């Protein structure tokens, strides 16, 4: 793509005065860098991904309300994490983290273990223990 044709579309990035560094060719055909605020297909893909994340978080919230999963599952989705990422943050095996999704197991976790999750989610221990679904 030529430098003068670098897309400048995405309103999501331009609102925050953020620009993305991309490679383009200059008038001599040499590769150079240019700043872009994005392009429409990328904006659509990003919007769809964000909508999907919000939907998964709401679904997890309903499961917490029904007693099917623990608040850990909800906060994991809310903070755009997956099982591997969360396990890394709390320094536990994935199978242990997955086990903590069970409400009965979650209820028996020590404050020390819960604090690891609270720190990973940037919330207080009280918020994690007293999760409100309202």
UniProtKB/TrEMBL annotation:
<feature type="domain" description="HTH cro/C1-type">
    <location>
        <begin position="107"/>
        <end position="128"/>
    </location>
</feature>
<keyword id="KW-0175">Coiled coil</keyword>
<feature type="coiled-coil region">
    <location>
        <begin position="43"/>
        <end position="70"/>
    </location>
</feature>
<protein>
    <recommendedName>
        <fullName>HTH cro/C1-type domain-containing protein</fullName>
    </recommendedName>
</protein>
<dbReference type="InterPro" id="IPR001387">
    <property type="entry name" value="Cro/C1-type_HTH"/>
</dbReference>
């Amino acid at each position: 793509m030529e430098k003068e044709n670098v897309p400048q579309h995405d309103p999501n990035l331009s609102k925050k005065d953020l620009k993305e560094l991309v490679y383009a060719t200059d008038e001599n055909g040499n590769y150079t860098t240019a700043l872009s605020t994005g392009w429409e297909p990328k904006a659509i893909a990003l919007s769809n991904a964000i909508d999907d994340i919000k939907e998964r978080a709401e679904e997890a919230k309903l499961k917490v309300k029904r007693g099917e999963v623990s608040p850990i599952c909800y906060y994991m989705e809310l903070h755009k994490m997956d099982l591997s990422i969360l396990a890394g943050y709390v320094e536990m095996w994935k199978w242990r983290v997955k086990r903590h999704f069970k409400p009965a197991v979650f209820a028996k976790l020590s404050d020390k273990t819960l604090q690891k999750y609270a720190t990973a989610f940037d919330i207080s221990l009280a918020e994690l223990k007293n999760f409100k679904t309202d």
